[in-house]
Specification:
The longest helix is centred in the N-terminal third of the chain and has 37 residues. Helices cover 86% and strands 0% of the residues. It contains three helices and no strands.
Amino acid sequence: MANHKSSIKRIRQTIKKTERNRFYRTRLKNIVKDVRSAIEAGNKEEATAAFKIANKQIHTFVSKGILKKETAARKVSRLHKAVNAI
């Protein structure tokens, strides 16, 4: 256990941040899964609609500091390429 006030505060902050990030990462996985399932079903309209939602959410996660900008760009690019391949 930490002895300094600053260390104790840092532990509290890390716990909060970890829980918040876990929520957003799970949300990200579900959003990407929705797009992938629409692609596998071959439904272009549903895949496009799901991609629009995913694109907006992924960039929101960048602004919240959950994802890095390059990681988000890579994910969006791969999803976009898959949607266009239908």
